[in-house]
Amino acid sequence: MNIGNLMIIAISAILINNFVLSRFLGLCPFLGVSKKIDSSIGMGMAVIFVLTLASAVTWIIYEYFLLPVPQNIIYRIFHLFNTSTTPEMFDLAYLETIAFILVIASLVQLVEMVIQRVSPPLYESLGIFLPLITTNCAILGVAELNTITIHYSFIESTVHGFSAGIGFTIALILMAGIREKLELADVPPAFKGLPIAFIVAGLMSLAFLGFSGLSF
Amino acid sequence: MSLIKEFTKGIIKENPVLVLALGLCPTLAVSTTIVNGIGMGIAATFVLVCSNMVISLIKNLVPNRIRIPIFITVIATFVTIVKLAMAAYFPALSKSLGIFIPLIVVNCIILGRAEGFASKHGVLKSFIDGLGMGVGFTMILVILGTCREILGSGTILGHPLFGEHFKPALLMILPPGGFFSIGILIALSNLLQKRLE
Q1: CB B141 within 8 A of CB B38
Q2: Which residues of chain B are within 8 Å of residue A202 when distances are taken between CB atoms?
Q3: Per-block average pLDDT, block size 10, for chain B (197 residues)?
Q4: Residue extents of the structural domains in chain A
Q5: Cβ separation of B187 and A23 shorter than 8 Å?
Q6: How confident is residue A127, by pLDDT bands cut at 50, 70 and 90?
Q7: pLDDT one-digit tens code per residue, A6-44
Q8: Closest to A149 (Cβ–Cβ): which among B22, B68, B99?
Q9: Closest to A134 (Cα-Cα) out of A160, A96, A100
Q10: Using the beta-carbon criterion (under 8 Å), do A194 and B186 form an inter-chain contact?
Q11: What pLDDT score was predicted for residue A28?
């Protein structure tokens, strides 16, 4: 576990494998909330917060509740009463999708309630974005990538979640800036609205493709 | 008669991708080849039809306040079935679709139909609605997949289409090509709908 390794994870999640522009995760809020810079900043902050938290929590759920390993907590509890149980009896890895989505949904609900109590001004600015986040595929996507596809450690997962959120926010704010200008542009009638937004996103993605030449 | 209408509305008038702009993430991510598009389309259609039917059956038992978590659990169950079946019978396809199979859970088309249609209508109508929406979604995936595979790798269903001197436009199977092709497809459908009116 060294800092350099974490930096590589962060830079590749922000620039090279940007969640929106190269992994196609979280396109609905990317196109839905990118009409004004103010609201895109609010959405970006909410996504960074939930992504970081969800990465940490789903990693713990996967490693300590679902995988059939000796540190599995369900196995440990049963082992206290019956010493003949083995970790393999508690292989719940196939439940991972259901477990993750329920954990994420309740996490978002919890965050919303805590923010509402602790800081009403923050709730005013983030509140409306939080319910939208549950069905943002970036959140479930980062959980699946951290645990199944890449298999990061706990710190790496959290850093990956946080930097994925930063990458999402950068793309969202850039897009909002362009779309505010686009309001005044003379776009062919058939391309008005969503189609031109996609073309702009394609050009941004083309620009971000340049980062794939970065090597360490 | 009205059942036919329920079926065709998902394909043309209320196409989930082109008109409602739902389910965009998997549409762009997996449409690099036709096979991926068909695989994703069938998986999503299965989940859509099954979850629509189950939700329309249990709609009177579900308390209103907790309906969304219950809907998500029903959807996640069917997604798990699809994920395990695909990993067992089509390992190559399951590998190339990657995390987008579990991500069917958060596909807005499915929760949108559950909340907007199945929780208000009967079983037969919900079944037809799910089937229509699923076919509409699959159709877009196949159209995009065909365009991107022909332009981006010069093949169709894996068979080379042009001579060996053909240089494919690699850009089309990279992420930017996905954004460009869906933008052009939506613009074309806007144009067509305007002409028809």
Answers
A1: yes
A2: 176-180, 183
A3: 79 81 85 92 94 92 86 92 94 90 88 87 91 93 92 86 82 91 92 85
A4: 17-213
A5: no
A6: low
A7: 999 999 899 988 888 988 888 888 888 888 888 888 888
A8: B99
A9: A100
A10: yes
A11: 81
Of the candidates A22, A195, A196, the beta carbon closest to that of B175 is on: A22
Place of tokens 């010069």: B154
Determine whether the interchain pair A140/B179 forms a contact, defined as Cβ–Cβ distance below 8 Å. Answer: no
Q: Measured between alpha carbons, how far is A14 from A22 in angstroms, rounded to an integer?
A: 10
A137-144 vs A96-118: helix crossing angle, rounded to 10: 120
Structure tokens at A44: 């970006």
pTM, entire model:
0.88
Q: pLDDT tens digits for A171-188?
A: 999 999 999 898 888 888
Residues of B in contact with A134 (CB under 8 A): 106
- DSSP per-residue string spanning A91-117: --GGGHHHHHHHHHHHHHHHHHHHHHH
- Cβ <8 Å between A98 and B80: yes
Two structure tokens written together for A197 = 């937004």
Token duo for residue A127: 């509140």
